[in-house]
Amino acid sequence: MKTSSASRCGDRSTSDVVVRLRTHNGRDDWMYSHSQILIDNSKYFADRLSDNWPTCQILDSRNCVEVYCDESDFDYYVTVLRLFYVNITKCPLSEMWNGVKNALCILRVAVELGCPQIITACVSYMESVPWEEAEEEEILKVIPGMGLQAEPILNRLQPVNPTTIVKIFISAVRFATSSPPLPMTDLKTSAQEQLEYMLTEDDDAPLLTADNEIKIEVRECVKRLLARFNNLIDTLLCGSEESDFNGGVIRSFHSYLGDLLWACQILAKLETMREVVNGWIEESEKMVKVVEKMSEKGEMVDTSLKVVEVTAKVLEAIGDGTVILSTVERLHMVKVWLPFVRCLKPLIDCSTTNDDDDEEEEEGPLNKMEGEVWQTLESAFVSIILTLPSLDQAEILTSWLRDEHIRYPDLTEAFEVWCYRSKVANKRLALLGQSGHGYDRSLSSCAVAASEIRRGWEKYLHMLDDMAFRFSHIFREGNVPADILSKVSGNSKREINLEIGKMLEE
Question: What phi and psi, each to the nearest 5 degrees, are found at residue 280?
Fold first, then answer.
């Protein structure tokens, strides 16, 4: 951009052209300018002052160029005209543009008037400074219509390729499950929240689709998390109570539980809960002992609640069939966790009531425990119990009916189903060939076959955890083989060949 020491914007004595700015509301301002400066800095004025564009004469034989604009843009047109007389390269950009919103309006006018130097300076400024949320939304509305010259402003908003997304997802998963020191808890929590957001389908599609590579990496990270958690449990059980049940260790234990709860949510989205379920089964008895020790010492009731939350996620996955377990494993989980939650629930209710009575306590951790968790846990127990052999069901229900904590969990539904099944069992099994209180040989063979089918089915379900599926469109021509196969199914080989030949001729 040229600078003239002898020419100043509005200098009537040296002006040879008047730019008449007008609005539809009647505003009309004259700016005394210099034709050479206008031509050097604006393609629009260069065209208007050329021989191909008629101009009118006003006072002192000056050329007049009329420019119409909106009332809201008037001041920005004045600013652009004044910038023609400034050496932009020597001025601090932050002082010149006076904020993102102001720079965006100047840029819009500069694009309309075809001012390349001002456009370059505006783009350089807006591309480098931070934006507020409202400014970002306005930029998204305005910049795309300005063409290639303004595109660098949008570089920070451009989508990245899927490979880059997978890399940052895997890096974030490794950090989120790495159990960093407690001072880095906020960073870890932020990473966990963003990972969950990346996989969530809301108004927009998930940021990435989990393929086999991602599932394997997440499972490995969760395995390492479980291994560290198990080591901490062993330490708490084997060490001295005075040294091991200190504040730092309890905070670490609570942090691990929070990480596992988050891992359950991520694994549920990836449909691969088996790792957490298997790890929780292995450590269930030890975990109950650790929590009981903490309770004896009056430590951290909210930690017990975290244990309940993770247990609810695990039992829910087992109860709804997401993870297939053997009868022995399902029975083990019920026998370990049913007595635990049966005794814990009244203690939690009592603690919550005490907190409510304390006027100085605004909101303790106990109040954050949502009733949905207890309901989920109760429903999971009912579902799992009903999958067990009837004799095991009877044993569990007998214990429940004798217990003083019969109100929770409420196994009424399981009791009703058991009563119905037991009452109609003889009639049902008689139709299948039962003789007396035992099955005949044919029914026994069916039972063996069914057991083999179940084992095979569980094997294939486990294999499916390591598989990735993709559905894609097939062109119309791809339907021809399917049509042929559907028409010739059940025919002899000769008939199949004849039918295929006819369809190919058509």
Answer: -70, -35
